[in-house]
Automatic annotation (TrEMBL):
Pathway: Quinol/quinone metabolism; menaquinone biosynthesis. It catalyses: chorismate = 3-[(1-carboxyvinyl)-oxy]benzoate + H2O. The lineage of its organism: Bacteria, Bacillati, Bacillota, Desulfuribacillia, Desulfuribacillales. This is Chorismate dehydratase. It comes from Desulfuribacillus stibiiarsenatis. It is an enzyme of class 4 (lyase). GO terms for molecular function: hydro-lyase activity. Pfam families: VitK2_biosynth.
Length: 282
């Protein structure tokens, strides 16, 4: 039996979907668990067929991919796990040195766009392993995402650091939601595994609903990994959006256009969804 390789982000933000997908996935599915930056590369190389990737990585390879409908990792305001942590206020970062996590694509470009287009700030960037202490040793600020961004608040206070939630900044500056990860499928994989990929899609949708209905189980699992208390994780997961409706698509297209204007994409990109998945019968 030929295995369909499905990516899985190695962060807690996708737990409401993957906790159940790991249990309910079709028999011909092999799950590949990696951080977003690695999944971006694997999908681009055809080493996985489908899965969540950085939304910016979709824009870089849009001609090769379609997006699964109704699936994303987004926020309308605070995302609570994507932070710029700085020694000085954001509006004073002109010519500063900023350390960027090596696990991200979307958040790196979102930060650059926010600083360049909206704050008119030019900075110097270095990509590093995501460790706050090491990042701030020789840099003025750092960008952390996912599980690496769950920094103890006391560390922020003790070191007089400033912390900015990129989802919240984007909302304040544009009034829009921000989609950090999307579920992309290779067009070449659809040609080979159409029916099986439709089964995978429907499994994702079912599992998303289960995660929503049984959020306390998700919270308990997350709290065992990072003991922050029930309310912290409740706020975290309730602040994330796992849907992908038309207003969210329009907002993501706006981000892509900003990336084009800032020179991070060679041409404007617009989202193309795999409509057949949305229309398929169970």
């Amino acid at each position: 039996m030929t295995k369909i390789k499905v990516g899985r982000i190695d962060f807690l933000n996708i737990l409401p979907i993957y906790h159940y997908f790991d249990q309910m996935k079709p028999e011909n599915v092999e799950v590949v668990n990696k951080v977003p930056a690695v999944l971006n590369e694997l999908l681009a190389k055809g080493e996985i067929d489908v899965g969540p990737i950085s939304s910016f990585a979709y824009a870089q390879n849009a001609s090769e991919y379609l997006l699964l409908p109704n699936l994303s990792v987004s926020s309308y305001g605070k995302v609570r796990s994507i932070f710029l942590i700085s020694k000085k206020p954001i509006d004073l970062l002109q010519d500063s040195n900023i350390a960027l996590t090596n696990t991200s694509a979307t958040s790196i470009h979102l930060l650059k766009i926010i600083l360049e287009k909206y704050y008119h700030i030019d900075a110097n960037y270095d990509v590093m392993l995501p460790n706050l202490t090491n990042m701030l040793e020789y840099h003025d600020a750092s960008l952390l995402i996912g599980d690496d961004a769950f920094v103890d608040e006391q560390v922020i206070l003790d070191n007089n650091l400033f912390i900015y939630d990129l989802g919240e900044l984007w909302r304040q500056l544009t009034g829009l939601s921000m989609t950090f990860a999307v579920w992309a499928v290779r067009k070449s994989s659809i040609e080979k595994f159409r029916e099986s990929l439709l089964d995978v899609y429907h499994a994702f949708i079912d599992c998303k609903q289960l995660g929503k209905e049984d959020l306390n189980t998700i919270i308990d699992i997350a709290n065992k990994k990072f003991e922050r208390g029930h309310q912290f994780w409740k706020n975290y997961y309730e602040g994330l959006i796992y849907d992908f409706d038309q207003p969210m698509i329009d907002s993501l297209n706006k981000f892509f256009y900003d990336a084009f204007e800032c020179g991070y994409l060679p041409e404007p990109v617009e989202v193309e969804v795999w409509r057949e998945a949305n229309e398929s019968n169970r």
